[in-house]
Each structure stands twice: as C-alpha cells, then as structure tokens.
Amino acid sequence: MVIISGPSGSGKGTVVKRLDAAKGYARSVSVTTRPPREGEEEGRDYFFTTPEGFIQMRQNGELLEHALFVGHNYGTPRKYVEQQIADGKVVVLEIEINGALQVKGKFPDAVLIFLMPPTMGELSRRLNARATEDAVTIDARLKKASEEVPLISAYDYLVINDEVECAVAMIDAVVNAERLRPRRCQAQINQFFI
Ligand code: 5GP
Questions:
Q1: 72, CA 20 to 30 Å: which among 58, 105, 173, 188?
Q2: How far away, in angstroms, is 68 Cα from ligand 1 center?
Q3: How many angstroms separate the Cα of 135 from the Cα of each of 96, 126, 141, 142, 146?
Q4: Is the predicted pLDDT of residue 149 greater than 90, yes or no?
Q5: pTM, whole model, 2 decimals?
Q6: Contact, 11 vs 167, CB < 8 A?
Q7: CA-to-CA separations, 30 to 8, 135, 185, 191, in angstroms, rounded
C-alpha cells in the first residue's frame, strides 16, 4: 500500500492519476461529505455522501480510516483496498496525515510519501489559480498546510512536486525500490531453495 499525502493544492490528485495502472497501481477512491467541485465525478474522484451516510459507513466498519479535514469528513472504503491487495496490486491512497498515520498503525508495511510544492508561495498560487474554493476556504487550506509540513518526519519519503512527470517518476522509483526489500521478497527467497 502506498499512501500519498501533502497540502491541498500540492498536485496529489494529478500525480496519483498519472500512476500507470499497467504497472500494477490501483487508486483508491475515497468517500467524502464535501460537495463535488465542478468537473468532479461520482465514483471517479470521490463517492459523495451525506454526514448521515458517512456515519453509517463508519459504524458498519466499512472504512479503513477516516478523518475530518477543514469541516468535511473523508474516509477510505475498506473493501476495495483489501480486494486489490489480494490481487497483488499496489494500492494508492491519497489521504491527509491523520488518516495516513491510522493506516500505518494498522499496516506497518505501508509506504508513506509526502508530496509538496517547492514553496508556500507556489502552493498559494496553485490554490488561487485552481479557483475551486472561495478565499476563506483557501486561507483555511493554507493554514492547514503550515500545520502539516512540520509532520513530514512521520513519512518515509518526501517528493517535491515541481514538474508532474518528475514527481511521478520519483514515486515510481520509490515503489520499485520498496519492492526489493527482502521482507517483501519472501516468494523469491523461497524459490532459491527449490
Ligand atoms: P480535497 O477536498 O482537496 O479533495 O481533499 C482534502 C484533503 O482530504 C486532502 O488532503 C486529501 O488528500 C484528503 N483526503 C481525501 N480522501 C481522504 C480519505 O479517504 N481519508 C483521509 N484521511 N483523507 C482524505
């Protein structure tokens, strides 16, 4: 499992969508109570639900992790993640820090990658250029970013997203290196003795 976190506007969505399914990546789609942004699609970007629907999913144990972020609930549906792992896929979760730490607690083998833009000024520029949120929400998201960045040391890797293609290549490199850790290669080790 690969978890990608980073400030809102760091380009996580764009980077994660570029990870190639042909290389075994499977992107998890989260549930949220946030209203859809223009252009977002149910089931592709998120599963949009009501606060009541979210509570119900949580109570039914359908969420692997969940968190509150700037006034809205977000959570990872458990079933899809478990199915993809069983199929040998590299499941990618694009989630904020509290959720990432919950997953790391349950699955210590998960790889945590923090993605961030080169500077706070660039982050502000991207959020304003995206123009999907009002000024108050952008301010709340920038404030949240300044709280998140000091927590990077909880992550395994830091990727600066200056150029999307470079960030995608760096994540690919991390995943390929992680595949070579002896603890993930038990099948090949056993094969050696046949
Ligand atoms: P946005 O509203 O910009 O789509 O997402 C806001 C924040 O929530 C982002 O940091 C995003 O990574 C995070 N997020 C999205 N889905 C989930 C989820 O399922 N769980 C958690 N913990 N955070 C999520």
A1: 105
A2: 9
A3: 21, 13, 10, 10, 17
A4: no
A5: 0.92
A6: yes
A7: 15, 25, 30, 38
